[in-house]
């Protein structure tokens, strides 16, 4: 529908031809069309990009943390010297000082350098017990601390592993496409009725859970275990495992969760578990875009093997992890580039109004342009 706005420059060209042919040249009729194509294309691809924007979680572990001291750099600037007539007669060097503030980073194996606070660096240095001084060559510095750095390296002990989770945007055409992959809409009432989970916030790289909802007394311990597994497998396998717990909810809750998350992100394997008030397993539902369907079946079977028993999240994670290591294969979402994405009605309306405004402006310019009558060529002369 959005390309229907191309009728507007056709109408504009017709108006120019039949009403103002003595004031415009033939090539000026092409300007409304060219301008309209640019406007419509910008709206089309800009809106489509926004509609398909999705966010996925990357999980890794900190390898080392760095603290760079503040330092000043003396910078030479070449400034021209002019006479009273404004002519350049020479150049002089003016020295200025660039201030570089202190900064702190943690290097994640999955996402490179992540900016952190001073307190976070100090916490990691204490946790890893190996804060060391490293000399940094600065060309021109005269700060008392000389802008050197301190580094704390993780020693590889799993007990002191620091989990780092970040979010990244990517294009997910399934979100905005009316296709066979379309997921049933989930209302606010459905979300409340089934106690559906939202993706957790990422205010801190170090505090993003992998288990959502109450899974019983072992939830905290199991969450720590699963976070470490996600950190180990995150970069190597490009996967993130979520476990979502539901209490006294039917299997439809797991299906509603799948619809709510639109099948999950491309790197996710989501295990939904339903238990009663005593945390005894009642059902399991697994969804993911992985190209290995057998993996989802195996993970669901690992859940249903505990039916009627108290949910043991640690055991479930131990059973699922080797299956993920052996069978996981991430879906490449470029395979969905064939899906068409239709912009919302308000975007179409805005495109039409903007295109109409541009065409009106172009027509006024074409008629009033000061090119001179002797430079004009009337259509009637052809």
Question: In a few lines, what is going on in this structure?
Answer:
The chain has about 375 residues and is an alpha+beta fold. The protein contains nine helices and twelve strands. It is flat and about 90 Å long.
Could you describe the 3D structure shown?
With 382 residues, this protein is of the alpha+beta class. It has helices at residues 7-19, 30-51, 118-128, 188-194, 219-237, 251-260, 293-304, 313-327, 345-368, and strands spanning 53-68, 71-82, 88-100, 103-108, 112-116, 131-134, 149-153, 163-171, 211-212, 240-247, 268-275, 281-288. Helix content is 35%, strand content 25%. Helix 1 runs antiparallel to helix 2, helix 5 (219-237) packs parallel to helix 8 and helix 7 (293-304) runs antiparallel to helix 8. The longest helix is centred in the C-terminal third of the chain and has 24 residues, at 345-368. The strands form three sheets. Strands 1, 4, 5, 6, 7 and 8 form a six-stranded antiparallel sheet that branches. A four-stranded mixed sheet has the order 9-10-11-12, with helices on both faces. The chain folds into three domains: 2-52 and 341-381, no CATH class; 59-160, no CATH class; 172-336, Diaminopimelate Epimerase, Chain A, domain 1 (Roll).
């Amino acid at each position: 529908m959005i390309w229907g706005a191309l009728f507007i420059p056709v109408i504009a060209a017709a108006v120019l031809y039949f009403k103002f042919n003595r004031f415009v040249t033939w090539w000026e009729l092409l300007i409304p069309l060219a301008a309209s194509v640019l406007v419509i294309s910008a709206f089309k691809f800009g809106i489509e990009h926004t509609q398909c924007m999705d966010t996925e979680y990357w999980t890794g572990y900190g390898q080392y943390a760095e603290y760079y001291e503040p330092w000043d750099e003396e910078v030479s600037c070449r400034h021209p010297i002019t006479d009273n007539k404004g002519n350049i007669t020479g150049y002089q060097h003016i020295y200025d000082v660039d201030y570089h503030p202190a900064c702190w980073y943690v290097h994640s194996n999955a996402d490179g350098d992540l900016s952190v606070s001073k307190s976070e660096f100090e916490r990691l240095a204490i946790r890893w017990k190996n804060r060391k001084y490293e000399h940094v060559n600065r060309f021109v510095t005269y700060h008392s601390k000389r802008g050197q750095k301190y580094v704390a390296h993780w020693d590889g002990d799993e007990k002191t592993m620091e989990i780092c989770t970040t979010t990244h945007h990517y294009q997910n055409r399934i979100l905005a496409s009316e296709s066979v992959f379309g997921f049933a809409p989930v209302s606010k009432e459905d979300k409340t009725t089934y106690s559906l989970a939202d993706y957790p916030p990422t205010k801190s790289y170090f505090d993003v859970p992998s288990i959502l909802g109450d899974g019983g007394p072992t939830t905290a311990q199991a969450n720590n275990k699963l976070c470490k597994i996600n950190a180990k497998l995150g970069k190597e396998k490009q996967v993130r495992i979520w476990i979502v717990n539901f209490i006294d909810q039917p299997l439809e809750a797991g299906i509603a969760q799948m619809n709510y998350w639109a099948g999950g992100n491309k790197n996710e394997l989501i295990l939904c578990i339903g238990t009663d008030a005593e945390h005894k397993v009642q059902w399991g539902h697994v969804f993911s875009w992985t190209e290995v369907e057998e993996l989802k079946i195996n993970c669901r079977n690992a859940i249903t093997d505990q039916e009627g028993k108290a949910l043991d999240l640690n055991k479930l994670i131990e059973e699922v992890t080797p299956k993920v290591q052996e069978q996981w294969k991430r879906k490449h979402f470029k395979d969905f580039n064939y899906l068409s994405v239709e912009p919302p009605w308000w975007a179409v309306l805005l495109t039409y109004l903007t295109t109409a405004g541009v065409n009106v402006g172009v027509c006024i310019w074409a008629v009033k342009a000061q090119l001179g009558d002797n430079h004009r060529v009337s259509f009637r002369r052809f």
